[in-house]
Q: What sequence folds into this?
């Protein structure tokens, strides 16, 4: 939707802002990762009918080339089309507030209870599972992308430069 369309459309209903906040808060609180795209589509296109399929796909295409998390970008673009700048602010607050609150609560919990053996073991398990998930993703993507010598060499040199050369991630990517 371009700026001209935005000027001629009707004003949103008075409850639209509260609906957008509630919806994005629930999206941010109940989903994460790749599954969130399907959930956002289900809510914005199918359930609420706030946008049609074509507008959703166009926004997704733009969101994927913007810097930052694709889902946040997508929800921001869709919310901008719905309610303008106010919609953007509401959507951002709705999407990130649950994660911020959860992280703060988890950090406070970890700070106060890491000395408890069960909690320490749980945190170690979470760390190990994160390593496993990352390694699994690397292997799955490697099977697809590392089928010739050049990408394999780049991957090996990048990994070695980080692990052995103690380079930061940005320097390794730029090399």
A:
């Amino acid at each position: 939707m371009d700026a001209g369309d935005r000027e001629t459309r009707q004003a949103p209903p008075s409850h639209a802002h509260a609906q957008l906040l509630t919806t994005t808060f629930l999206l941010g609180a109940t989903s994460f990762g790749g599954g969130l795209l399907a959930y956002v589509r289900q809510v914005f296109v199918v359930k609420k009918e706030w946008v049609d399929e074509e507008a959703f796909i166009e926004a997704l295409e733009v969101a994927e080339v913007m810097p930052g998390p694709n889902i946040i970008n997508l929800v921001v673009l869709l919310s901008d089309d719905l309610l303008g700048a106010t919609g953007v602010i509401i959507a951002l607050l709705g999407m990130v507030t649950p994660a911020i609150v959860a992280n703060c609560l988890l950090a406070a919990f970890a700070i106060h209870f890491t000395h408890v053996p069960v909690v320490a073991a749980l945190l170690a398990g979470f760390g190990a599972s994160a390593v496993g998930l990352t390694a699994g993703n690397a292997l799955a993507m490697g099977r697809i992308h590392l089928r010739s010598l050049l990408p394999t060499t780049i991957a090996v040199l990048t990994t070695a430069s980080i692990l052995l050369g103690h380079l930061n991630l940005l320097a390794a990517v730029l090399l």
Remarks:
- DSSP finds eight helices and no strands in the chain.
